Input
Amino acid sequence: MSRQWKANVTVAAVIERDGLFLVVEEDTADGRCFNQPAGHLEHGESLSDAVIREVLEETGHHFAPEGLVGIYMADKDHSDVTYLRFAFYGRVTGFEPARELDAGIVAARWLPAEEILALSDAHRSPLVSRCLEDYLAGRRYGLDLLYRHEDRA
Output
């Protein structure tokens, strides 16, 4: 029996404060790179809950999603892995400076868009630039775009 292919669902946050954007610097199997706070949807989570959790785990910041920048799909080079990314925008509502960050996270940094885009060779994926560019272009979609049916059986 063949295994059924499924995309890896991820969430990411584009967070702007005072003209700077929150990014994480992280060590990966491919080396040191930069990404928006992002990660995988876990079983039983809503997409909004997943992005709130990921931002907190990777940056120590509490995040309030206000909408979507976009929905993106990307294939990982030379593999059968596909990522389906839901990129949210929103605001920081608090900070836990003493919080231990996820394994691999070197630091959470506030950087200007120009600097993030100039670091494109060190981005975790091409979606980092694309999400930021779409945000800067004013792409915004309400959270009501997302619907979750919960089986109440």
Remarks:
- The two ends are 30 Å apart (CA to CA).
- Residues 8 and 137 are 27 Å apart (CA to CA).
- The first strand starts at residue 8 and ends at 17.
- Residues 47-59 form the longest helix (13 residues).
